[in-house]
Amino acid sequence: MSSGRARELQAQILSLVEEYVAEAFPAKPFVPGTTHVPVAGRHFDADEVKRLVEASLEFWLTHGHFADSFEDELGKWFGGRRCRLCNSGSSANLLALTALTSPLVGERRLVPGDEVVTVAAGFPTTVNPILQNGLVPVFVDVTLPAHCVDLAALEEAIGPRTRAIMIAHPLGNPFAVAEVAEIAKKRDLWLVEDCCDALGATYDGRAVGTFGDVATVSFYPAHHITMGEGGAVLSANTRVMRAVESLRDWGRDCYCAPGKDNTCGKRFAWQLGDLPYGYDHKYIYSHIGYNLKATDLQAAIGLAQLEKLPDFIAARRRNFHRLREGVKDLADIFEMPEATARSDPSWFGFPLLLRADAPFPREDLMRWLNEQNIGTRLLFGGNLLRQPAYVGIPHRVVGRLTNTDIVAERLFWLGVYPGLTEAMIDFVIERLHAFCRAPR
Ligand SMILES: Cc1ncc(COP(=O)(O)O)c(C=O)c1O
Q: In angstroms, rounded to a whole number, what is the distance separating the alpha carbons of residues 310 and 418?
């Protein structure tokens, strides 16, 4: 910062921001039926807004020291893995899988036509990078009620062209990731863990995202921490991370931070491709890349959120258990959510699976909850293969996607995010009973 006076002004502005946040975002009383009970949302206080303003006043704008710190801090969460910030969880998935096609990863690089085993019950951008890279998704079913990948089907799906597994930990409940990592190791497959919905979940006491080769996270407002839009890729594999960084940053070979030159010490001494010797390394491209960088403004918010992550995860778990206790007597209507054995989920939502003989269709219940101002969501795309965008895609299905169809037809989820109060959750429980036990 330029001067003492500027520092003084900054302090004044930040103190005003604190006052502003207290005025602009007061805690509002909960009025059952009138106040919306969302499934998710930004959960923040003055800390996030102050960090954002601080970054705005610096006006660096692009990836800078806030982004560097965020990458360091999130890397620590993932057992010291390297971390690269990007502009969304979808971009993180695209970068993670595309990095595995890079010549930098050597012999094991994925090439068009190679197969990637995945599930169809979930979010589209876990699967889309497979198609976007000319690879072939192989879909296997999930088990119920955990709606996690079916291990036997996964093993059966591995054929001579299978090179990778890419699956999300659904709604914060880990799939049996140690077993999947073991299968991947045995069969020499890459494992990409989509942790977008599961930041902080553990399996065998170890963080999800640290079992596979690459992990991804999302910071969209519905997720455990937010920066508006944002995502990250994490891996212990330095070659993979070099490819991730290059693909994120236009495909460039140079890895200087924005505003920096000559990190490699030979900026004008490279000979790559058919370029003349000494061609400025800043403008040498070793990948067909994108620009998927996030800004320092996003990272500044993320840093404030990261400090609160342990509390956020604890609140999600608390809310989940309050809901679970409150609706357990409705087990004749719903299959209750179960944590995967040996896991401690970091719940994204509270899934309820309507039993086949339930006395009403799921849509009637969701419509009614919506009228009560209670938010609900589906498990995203349900069965992606039944979505219009996926008609005619190259793919294989191994076994039958029976449970995936059940997820598409009978599952929905309620919120557990830290912004929900006990009164809100109790209202949700009461309304669920009112609907389920109404005479019909
Ligand atoms: C499992 C999963 N992966 C990826 C994404 C994409 O994240 P983003 O919205 O940040 O692109 C989502 C979005 O919610 C998701 O649920």
A: 11
